[in-house]
Each structure stands twice: as C-alpha cells, then as structure tokens.
Design a protein that fits this description.
The protein has 106 residues and is an all-alpha fold. Helix content is 75%, strand content 0%.
C-alpha cells in the first residue's frame, strides 16, 4: 500500500483539531512558567523549548516506527526523513522568531 493512505487521514484530523485549538486559544493569556498540558496555551519561548525537547525524540520514534511498519524504498525513506527535518526546523525557527519579537515588544 502507498504511504499516503496511512498518512492522509491522521494528517487531516490533526490539522482540523489544531485549527480549532488555535482559534479557541487565540486571545487567551500565554503561560511561561509551570506545567501546561495544552500546547496552544504556551508562550512562544515555551513552545520553542518544548519543540527542542520533545520534537527530536518524536521524529526519531516516528521514523523508526515508519521503517518497521512500512516497506518503502530507500529514496522514500530519505524523502520522508528530509520532510520531517524541514518541518521541524521550520517550526523551531518560527517559534524562535516569534519569541524574540514578543520580547522586543515588552
């Protein structure tokens, strides 16, 4: 089976849930200290730290799981790994830039 059949449903579900959560917590105060279960309530500094601490192990775990469950070619594994890496770097960079901008405003 094609890998897209395994990824499209969960991707759409996560995308819809994330869009709803972004609008629900858009105007709420962001938390910078203490435990917060909801990612959308975190400040950009905390999102940046969360992405560094949890993003790398999640990417490695997902890559290993995909390798064990699917039967892709080497090129497909490389493309998937590069996609994970690019998305991770985009998210970390975005949160870092937003963190520094919000620091300058205060």
């Amino acid at each position: 089976m094609d890998i897209l059949t395994y990824l499209i449903g969960p991707f759409i579900g996560v995308l819809i849930f994330q869009l709803i959560a972004v609008f629900m917590y858009k105007d709420t105060e962001k938390i910078d200290k203490g435990f917060v279960l909801n990612y959308n309530k975190l400040s950009y500094r905390r999102k940046f730290i969360w992405n560094l601490v949890w993003g790398i192990p999640i990417i490695i775990g997902a890559s290993i799981a995909i390798y064990l469950v699917t039967n892709l070619s080497t090129a497909e594994y490389i493309i998937l790994g590069m996609a994970f890496l690019v998305l991770f770097l985009l998210e970390v960079t975005y949160n870092y830039v937003k963190w520094k901008r919000t620091e300058q405003n205060f």
